[in-house]
Design brief:
alpha/beta, four-stranded parallel β-sheet, 8 helices, 14% strand
Length: 247
């Protein structure tokens, strides 16, 4: 397993990074910037970009260029759910037989550090000096995805040394705007939302309309996110490179 910054061994599998996709052109631009950082951290590793829907190249288009070589698929998703556990791995296996899929990026302490950094960028007020910080997420109808968001909120709370509730802007609950309104009723005057999103799009637009005083930018091309992409790739590659025990 190559360390970050080291050249991959000869014949190393390609990394196929698959994001959800969005109609907002800023979304793919952020994903490309993130993957540029991944390439800079691991020179020589083939890193391909793909999207599950809405954006191009599609997973099918990206797979066409990778046929005939080993591939590790890394879902650029922050929690478990249908896309991370069923859709992306299943489509990749049909398109690229023998490929392996990593687990999604989150939850992870690296992302908690990146979330804290994005919060500090919003208006210069340190997160610990705000009355309240909320983790805003897209949401998931999958209980495993909701559990991952709760775990991400706990990791951010540990990082900031303060309670961090969470709220969703799409599926599941609790709704982010209701969480923010509840904090207002409790006396919070300065409320900031940490955006548990990878890239801009309609979910981030909904977060900006939740009634908070500040909404941080998505994680985007933060260095911690790039390191985590490589960590997930390495975790998936390791079983492929360790010889099976002799029988």
């Amino acid at each position: 397993m190559a360390e970050t910054g080291a050249a991959p061994p000869a014949g190393a599998p390609a990394l196929l990074a698959v994001a959800h996709g969005t109609r907002d052109p800023a979304g793919p631009a952020v994903v490309r910037a993130l993957l540029d950082r991944v390439r800079a951290m691991r020179p020589g590793l083939r890193v391909a970009e793909a999207y599950g829907e809405l954006s191009e190249p599609s997973l099918e288009e990206a797979a066409d260029a990778l046929r005939g070589r080993p591939v590790v698929v890394v879902p650029l998703l922050l929690a478990r759910g249908y896309h991370a556990l069923v859709d992306v791995p299943g489509r990749a296996e049909r398109l690229l037989p023998g490929s392996v899929a990593s687990r999604p990026l989150g939850p992870d302490a690296l992302l908690a550090g990146a979330l804290a950094a994005r919060l500090a960028e919003v208006d210069g007020i340190p997160p610990h000096r705000r009355d309240a910080v909320v983790l805003g997420a897209a949401g998931s109808a999958d209980p495993a995805g909701a559990a991952d968001v709760r775990a991400a909120a706990r990791l951010l709370a540990r990082r900031l040394g303060r309670p961090v509730p969470h709220g969703f802007v799409a599926a599941g609950g609790p709704p982010l705007d209701e969480v923010v309104a509840g904090l207002r009723r409790g006396g919070a005057r300065r409320i900031a939302v940490a955006s548990y999103l990878l890239a801009p799009g309609r979910f981030h637009d909904r977060m900006r309309a939740c009634g908070a005083d500040a909404v941080a930018a998505p994680l985007g091309a933060h260095g911690a996110a790039a390191r985590l992409v490589l960590r997930r790739y390495d975790e998936a590659v390791l079983p492929l490179t360790v010889p099976a025990p002799a029988r």
